Structure formats: C-alpha cells, structure tokens
Amino acid sequence: MPQRNLVSWTALISGFSQNLEFMESVVTFREMVIAGENPNEFAFSSVVKACAALELVKMGEQVHCLALKSGLSDELFVGSNLADMYSKCGLMGEACLVFEEMPWKDEVSWTAMIDGYSKNGDFEEALLAFRKMMSEGNALIDMYSKIGDMESATSVFGTDFGSRDVVSFTSLIDGFVEVEEVEKAVIFFVEMQRHSILPNEFTFSSLIKACANQAALEQGIQLHALAIKYNVAENPFVYSSLVDMYGKCGLFDHSVQVFEEICMPIDIAWNSLLGVFAQHGLGRDAMNIFDRMTKAKVKPNAITFGKILTGCSHAGLVEEGLRYFYSMEKTYGVTPGPAHYSCVIDLLGRAGRLKEAEEFISSMPFEPNAFGWCSFLAACRTHNDIERGKFAAEELLKIEPENSGAHVLLSNIYAKGHQWDGVKRVRRLMKDGNVKKVPGYSWVDVDNKTHVFGADDWSHPRKEDIDKKLDSLLDEILKAGYIPCTDSISLEVEDSVKVKLLHRHSERIAIAFALISMPSGKPIIIKKNIRVCLDCHSAIKFISKVTDRKIIVRDNSRFHHFVDGSCSCGDYW
Asked: Does the keyword Metal-binding feature in the UniProt annotation (predicted)?
C-alpha cells in the first residue's frame, strides 16, 4: 500500500493478535508509532492483549504509558486488557490500580480481575471481586433502566442469564415496564423462572403494574396466583399493585376484596383504592375511604389528594372537592402542586362553573399545566363556551404545539355551534403544522386473545358478522328511543351520514364483536385509548338495555358501567 492510515494499521495489528501471531502484532504496533500514526483504542487493546500472551510486561508498560498520554488508558477495552495483562504477569497491584481507574466496567474487565486473583492464588480476593461485580453490575442495570436506556441496560445484563440474580432481573423487567415494552419484560420474567431464580415482591409489583396499565386481566390473575405461590401476595407493594390492577381491569369488587384482606394497609394501598373509586366515578365512596384512612392514623400525602380530587370531580362533588383542596396545606401540611390545581380546574369546569374556573386560573401561583388547560378546554366544549374555549386552546398550544387533542376539541366546539368556517380554520392549522389526530382504538379480550378495532381502519376474520350485528343493533336501539347526537361529528355532511359514521366508532365495533363471541351471562369489558364520545355513551346505554348485558367501558380517564339503559356516571363525566 503506497499510503497507510489508522484503519489499515489497526486492521493488521488486530488481525495478527486475533490469529495468535502476537509478536507480529507487537512489531506492527511499533512500526505504526514510528510512522507517526496515533493509535486508537482498538490498536491499543490488541497490542496489550499480545503483550499479555507473550508476558512482555516491560513492553506492556510502555504501551500503557502511551495509552495514558493518548487519554485512552481508562477506555473499556484498553483498561480491561491492561488489567488482564498485569494480572497474567503476576502484578496484581498494578492490575488493581488500572481496574479502579476505569470509569466503566463490564463483565470482561471483572472476569479479567477475578481470573487474575484466582491464578495468583488469592481466592478470597477473587470471591470479593465477584460479589462486587454482581453489586456494581446490578447498579448499572438499575441506573440505565431508570433513565429508560434499555439498550444499555440489556447490554450490561448480558446473555449469561444464569449468572444474574433477582435484583438485576427485576431492574430490567421494571425498566421495560416503564418504557411500555411489556412483552420484553415478560420474556425476561420467563427466563428468570427457567434459570430457577425466584421473583421477589418488586418483580411482581412491576409486572402487575404492567397488567394494570394494559388492562390485561388474565395475565394479572395469573401473576396474582404466582404471588400467592411464592408467598409475596401480602407484601405492601404487591397487594397495592393488585388493588390497582383489578380496578383498572374493571373488576371493582375484586379490588375491594383484595384491600379488605390486608391486615394493616399502608398509604400506598389506601391511595390505590382511592384511585380505583375515583376512576370508577364513585366520589362518595372515595370520601368514605379517605375518612377511614385518616381514622386509621395513615397520613394523606400529595398522591392521596390527587386521587380524592379526581373522585370528587368525576362525581360532581364540587363543594366537597374544594374543601379537600383548601384543607391540604392548612390541615395536613401538604403543599398543592400543579396536578392538584389542574384537578380543581377540572372540578369546576365539569360542573359548568367556567367563570369560577377562569378566576381560579388567574389566582394560581403558577401557570396551569397541559392537563389543566385541556380540562378547561374540554369543559368549554361540553358547555358550548366558544370564546373561553378558543382562549384555552391557544394557551394549551403554547405548551404543547403538537397536541392534536387541543385542535380536535376546538374543532368540536365550532362544529357544535355550526361554525364551519372555524372548523376549516382548525383543520388548516393542523395540516400546516403537520399535526395528526390521534386515532381512536378499542380492544376487548375474548378467549385469551386481545382483539383491537379502529374506527377507520380495521380488519377481522369475522368482519362480515360484526357488520351485520352493528346494523341490527342500530335498528334495535333506534326503536328503543335512541336519538343520535350528530353534533359530535365535525363534518358538514347530511345527518344520515353522520349517524353511520358514529355507529362505526371503535367501541361499538368491539361491543358488537363481544356480543357475537362471548357467553350471554358474562360482562363485556371494553378498553379505549381516548375519551368516549357523547353519542357513543348514549348508544351504549341503549345497547345494554336491548341486549340485557352489562357493558363496562374504560376510556382514557375513567370507567363507565352500563346496565339496563343506565350508566354509573349518571351522565356526568
């Protein structure tokens, strides 16, 4: 080659080293340095490996000095090979110094040290190094998992699952749960059991939390059974997760049953139960739980008040909610945060007290967060206040310019008032800003399989049967007195077209499928990723009446229990 660069020199040095031509690797490295080329970490690690194999400690020390000057001595590969070289040459003191100076250590560098101690007859230090490796490896996995860097966490975890313990497995599982990669969390849970590593209370609480968030009832029940088997079901973190899981899966009674079986529930369990009552719109019951909690000498915290305020908001208990809010700091020493102020905005807005909500916003010690403005905007839509709605949408878009919900809500406000020019303006804004509307999806579990349906785009092996059922349901509920609420469709089209569009909303498709697939006595539990619309709420009440079925719908904010033509929310949500 007429010209040699860093890549070609490094390739040759690495090639000699990998093919056990160690002396050639050392000679080529010297030639590279003489030629004036600055080695990189790969060249350094290859030549150090060669020095270790030849036990050329003096040459290795010179390479070490050069690596120090280059600022590469503590790089992972270079440091690992230097520690390995010194240990193989019997210089454990130098090996330890190199090892301790390394900012990052992987299994290779740890193994080099353990191997060095063992070969030099220092077995106690080898065991201590192994224990430290396990401890620091777990800390790294935990750190990466907590910041959501699951690629790095998995890399540190490695592929030798048998060498890992319950702490490292649980850190990884919890990390995957937090980034909503539940399938990967389950894979590692299965691997954990395959390698006879017993899960602990934190393993179960993480996985049960995942089931709660995805409303995966069958998997949640299986985990409950396993928690009992491993004797951790009575742990505070586990039973609190179970209370939350059953509530979020629609089985409210199961949540209460799990809670009542707890001997001395701690604040986490009380908060979980409060959250269940709040999500199911049972504000009065939430208030009773709050009273029981304080009588049991369990101090309410910021989370407690977030739950109780949400419960009051969903149940229309405005004065009660305000009393809880103003008692937070005065009575319980809990400073209200942005989430609590947003709950009060929601509380007043749902009740139609928009002027009070506006005054409350003006009196706040800080600007409302996105949830606060979104709640105010939704209230403006419900109560047909276009001017306040425009103001709320503008403020929300300042915080979250790509929030499609703000555009959709504002568009619905204009559509409800038949202001089609306003609807067109909002759509133009969305198009110009490349803002996409979040598509609505609903899903239902039938025969241990989750079936997902979208309003605009869905396919299913039983599509023809579902369409027939949807058509027959529409005929039945119209005869029973259902009047379509076409104002929620922000399109300037005939009402008959709007009715057809409404009746193909995802939750109705899921209900139709469940009706033709599930036994008649079994409640139908539907999950939806966005808020159920006013018309679907009305239609599902009629569907529950004409089919004589209990239908439970969980949208992105709460549960609706439809029975015999009525909803548990009392049409207040």
From this structure: no
